[in-house]
Specification:
single chain; 215 residues; mainly alpha; two-stranded antiparallel ribbon; 10 helices; DNA-binding transcription factor activity; GntR_C; transcription regulation; DNA-binding; Tscrpt_reg_HTH_GntR
């Protein structure tokens, strides 16, 4: 139940129900989810340990703030991990069947990219990149990526108003195709372009615009 509460909070952030810096009130979240406050309290502590929630004395829990430099730093770390995943996945024995799960995740994202629910698109993006890291067969690498996944989910949720979801789906498929062809240079170039694109978005402006429209 704690994990489900944490996922619900992240999904709410992806849908714009919670914006960066918003106070997360334990009692209100518990009421909305129809559960007791105990699992919500534990979920907020879990999210705090993952950097999604911050706690300030006398001000309570708040959703992480999102700044353009902060997003750029997060993407650089993510790119380093995923580039390593590409190299290690290609170093493993076997043919293109080792990327069957990744292709399935790319196809699944392509389907949700056509939908209107930003939380589903965020979930699809997360599943695709988690599958990429899993393909490396490196448990510590996957664990490190997963420790960043919910921060990425908050950022991806904000970016849904500016990210071209169908374009992202094409980039996913291009990356899978390069991996299946064992073209490391093309795979790394495709991955780098896909991730670095986030640095061209003004996430701070997105937050400001959403707050203005919420008034």
């Amino acid at each position: 139940m704690v994990e489900q509460a944490a996922e619900s909070i992240v999904a709410a952030a992806a849908r714009g129900i919670f914006l960066p810096g918003d106070r997360l009130v334990e009692a209100e979240i518990a009421r909305d989810l129809g559960i007791s406050r105990v699992p919500v309290r534990e979920a907020l502590r879990l999210l705090e340990s993952q950097g999604i929630v911050t706690s300030t004395p006398y001000k309570g829990m708040r959703l992480m703030r999102v700044t353009n430099p902060g997003v750029a730093a997060l993407m650089r770390v993510r790119l380093a991990l995923e580039a390593l995943a590409v190299r290690e996945a290609l170093a493993l024995p076997g043919g293109k069947e080792r990327f069957a799960g990744l292709r399935a995740a790319a196809d699944a994202y392509a389907e949700v990219a056509l939908g209107k629910d930003p939380a589903m698109r965020v979930q699809g993006e997360e599943q695709f990149h988690a599958e990429l890291c899993a393909a490396a067969g490196n448990a510590p690498l996957l664990a490190l990526w997963q420790s960043l996944a919910r921060q990425l989910a908050v950022v991806w949720g904000l970016g849904q108003s500016v990210i071209d979801a169908e374009g992202a789906a094409r980039e996913h498929l291009a990356l899978v195709t390069a991996l299946e062809a064992e073209d490391e240079a093309l795979a790394l170039a495709t991955l780098t372009a896909h991730i670095s694109e986030h640095e061209s978005y003004d996430f701070e402006a997105v937050v400001t615009d959403r707050r203005r429209r919420a008034l």
